[in-house]
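[audit] Reproducing an earlier prediction to check determinism. Same input, same settings, fresh worker. If the tokens differ from the archived copy the diff job will pick it up downstream; this log only records the rerun itself.
[audit] input (149 residues):
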Amino acid sequence: MRERFPETSITIVHANSSVLHPTAKQPDLNSGHFNYSSPPTSVKLSKTLEGLLRDLKIDLVFNDKVVIPVEPSDDAGAWDGSFGLQSGLKKVKLQSGQELEADFVFVSIGNKPNVSLVENVDKGAITQGLIAVDEYLKVGTPPDMPSRS
């Protein structure tokens, strides 16, 4: 984006405290609650990437999230939740209350893995919308994962 639009303001809003995940926690496999967690990365790599983004004059907003509207607003200048090129400059609200102006919105969250192939064969192998696997990446139902092949 920066190469194509050298003078355009670009802002990245990220819910975490850094671009990558240098402080990602290892999941507690004994809790019975399974969530995907990005693997931790080097703090140096994360800070280097942030520096490169700032050198490219890309603004970074950490520990905040974009509020994606679910209902239309009476304000014609408010972002309606649509992605891509907007019909003019729109106000994008953040959870913190801050507002950003945008004429193009790229949303990079909300990807949901397609687990239907596994779910059609074994509904019990799906935990919170993810495929449960053991330490060897074998698919299984959480309570009996170690003995299942």
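[audit] rerun output stored. Observation attached for the diff report: Strands lie at 10-14, 58-62, 84-93, 99-105, 126-127, 130-131.
[audit] end
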